[in-house]
Amino acid sequence: MYATRRLCSIACHLLVALVALLIAVGQANGQDDKDPHRPACTSSACRKIKSFVKTHYCGESPFGNGPDDGCEIRIPKKLGSGIEAEASFDCKWIEGVRKCEQHVQPAAEVRGVLVGELRRLGLPTKAPGPIYFNVWKSIAADLYLAEAFYEHVAGDERSLCQVIATIDRSSHVQIMRKVPFQKTDVDKPAVTTWSLIDLADVDGNGHIDVVLEGDAYEDHWLEVDNVQGEVPRTIFSGLGYYL
Question: If we measure between CA atoms, which residue out of 171, 54, 57, 151 comes closest to residue 100?
Fold first, then answer.
């Protein structure tokens, strides 16, 4: 009887270990159903948006370590028709160091709005690093998509702060994404930042939507926000890749 119980105990432990291993393998392959950035996309409306996003902003698929339907994120080489870049910056990795450059400065009014939002997020008045700006104007939607991004690296520490917002012709500001001022590790940042990807009518309803890339350290995905209502609403999140 003891031997039988002993065998059952060993078998149970092996079964638990096997289940844990299968779960871990599934997560490593991008098959985690609880991925907050890639919720299930089952409705016809969601599938339509996903198809548009994958067609326009995806390269190699699958890419990295998953998900199985994920992809390398592809940034359009130029903005679409009816969209003007009134301010822009880009960042590149040079000999292992991330370097950003501002190409065109935003109008003073827009700059003031964005810097004010960064201050509300805790950015010190005399912070040593620069602030970078992206400002896109959608002629069709008669609004600006604007980003302010602060970054300063000192040794192994990276300080950052970010805000992305829309500004309409009445100067009404809608905050879409915000990253409070914080310090994190240079190599393994414990924070999610965002990049502007496009302004496009992704669901074919005649209204402009905002396409963003989320970056949470070795995890990259795409999100689409509808900005027609009083508050921006995320209508799609998914695709992308893990490293």
Answer: 151
Strand partners, 154: 157
Amino acid at 32: D
pLDDT of residue 33: 55
Q: What phi and psi, each to the nearest 5 degrees, are found at residue 160? A: -150, 165
What are the contacts of 68-73 at 24+ separation with CB within 8 A?
A: 68/29, 68/30, 68/31, 69/239, 70/30, 70/239, 70/240, 70/241, 70/242, 71/239, 71/240, 71/241, 72/241, 73/197, 73/213, 73/220, 73/222, 73/239, 73/240, 73/241
Cross-strand partners of 194: 214
pLDDT digits (tens, 9 = 90+) for 53-104: 999 999 999 999 878 889 999 999 888 888 999 999 988 888 777 888 999 8
Note the pLDDT of residue 66: 76
Tell me the HSE value of 11 on the side-chain side, using a 13 A CA sphere. Answer: 6
Which ranges of the chain would DSSP assign to H, the alpha helix?
Answer: 2-28, 44-57, 108-120
User: Phi and psi (nearest 5°) for 193?
Assistant: -120, 170
Strand 233-242 and strand 157-168: the pairing is unpaired
- What is the rounded CA–CA span in Å between residue 157 and residue 112? 27
- pLDDT tens for 91-140 read 888 877 788 899 989 999 999 999 999 999 999 999 999 999 999 998 87
Beta carbons of 48 and 243 less than 8 angstroms apart: no
